[in-house]
Amino acid sequence: MPELVNPPRRIVQSGSVDIVVQYGHYVLEAGGERSGADAPSRDGLLFGEAGWLAVVCGSDFVPVPCRVEILKRMPPAVDRRWDMVTEHDLDLAQGVLTVMGSQGHHPHLTLSNTPGVHRIRVHVRNRERALHIADAQPSVDISPVNPEEHLIQLWPVNRARPAETLLGPDSYAVSYLSGSV
Asked: What whole-number distance in Å separates Cα of residue 146 and Cα of residue 130?
C-alpha cells in the first residue's frame, strides 16, 4: 500500500485485513438494522443505510487488501493517488465498526470508537484490474496478490452531510453504473 496522507498522530486506531469479497461487495457493519433489499449504489462504490454500508468491489470471491483507520478528525486532504474516493455518514450506535464479507464470513476486522455519527471516507484503486475466481481456469493458478486495494478512514462528526464523491468516478464505477459489469 502507498504511504498514507495522515501523520500517525491523527490515527486513534487502525487495522488491516484481507477481506473476502462475496457477490461483488463487503460490508462495513455498525450495528444497524437492514430494512430489506439492498438499494443500488448511486456512485458505483457505496450503498447501504445509516448503520451499515456495502463497498462495491471489482473483485469477487477473492480477498481484497483493506486498511481501516479511525481518526481524531477529518483528514486535511484527499490523497489523489487513489482512483476513487467517496464519503458517506455511518452511525456507530454502539461505537463499533466491523468490516466483513457480505455473508458475515471470516476474516473480519473490528475496531471501536466513541458512539455516534462518523464520516467515512472510502478510497479504492485498481478495481478494473481485480481478480475474479470465476475467471480462473482450474488448471491455472490465481496470483495471491490482488491489485485491488482499499483504504477506509472514519472520524466523528457533529452533523450529518450528504454522500459525496471526492475523486472519480473510476472506470469500474462508470461500468457498474451503466450496467455493463
From this structure: 6
Q: How far apart are CA 166 and CA 168, in angstroms?
A: 7
Phi, psi dihedrals of residue 172, rounded to the nearest 5°? -65, -40
Label the pairing between strands 84-92 and 164-167: antiparallel
SS (H, E, C) the chain: CCCCCCCHHHEEEEEEEEEECECCEEEEECCCCCCCCCCCCCCCCEEEECCEEEEECCCECCEEEEEEEEECCCCCCCCCCCCEEEEEEEEECCCEEEEEECCCCCCCEEEECCCEEEEEEEEEECHHHCCEHHHCCCCCCCCCCCCCEEEEEEEECCCCCCCEEEECCCHHHHHHHHCCC
pLDDT digits (tens, 9 = 90+) for 110-124: 999 999 999 999 999
Does the pTM exceed 0.70?
A: yes
Q: Give the tens place of pLDDT for each residue, 64-93.
A: 999 999 999 999 899 999 999 999 999 999
